[in-house]
Amino acid sequence: MRPETEAERAARHAATVRAFRALVDPAHPPREPFVLEQHFYAAEGGDVDGLAAALEERGFKVESLVYDPENADRAWRLVAVRLELLEERRLLAVSDELDALARRFDVIYDGWLTHVPD
Questions:
Q1: Which SUPFAM superfamilies does this entry report, sorted A to Z (predicted)?
Q2: d(Cα 62, Cα 81) in Å, to the nearest integer?
Q3: Rounded CA Rg of the chain
């Protein structure tokens, strides 16, 4: 898969910052870690097994791996979880790491999700 362009990286970073700021007050982020879901998808040719193994080596737990042959562009969907602190810089670093990792396996990193109580 081709390397990420600067424009793609900037767009991913902007989306990460927006999502983070929609969940928490950046001036007072929570001190306890949260379970973050990391979402990936791949077409038929993607090496989701290789990605799953690489994620587990990095301390993630693969929560789900779904195959949908009816959806050619997203035939495989993988969700991995790990405890993370909700800090803007940390989330940007994790998204950089996971996007680069996904590209090694011809998989698309689709971002993160968590629930923060009010």
A1: Hypothetical protein VC0424
A2: 6
A3: 14
Are 41 and 71 spatial neighbours (Cβ–Cβ below 8 Å)?
A: no
Residues 49-99: pLDDT tens digits? 999 999 999 999 999 999 999 998 899 999 999 999 999 999 999 999 999
What is residue 118's predicted lDDT score, i.e. its pLDDT? 65
Q: Cα 63 vs. chain centroid, distance in angstroms?
A: 13
> Residue 115 and residue 76: Cα distance in Å, rounded?
24
* Count, residues in the chain: 118
What secondary structure letter does DSSP report for 3? P
> What residue type is assigned to position 18 of the chain?
R
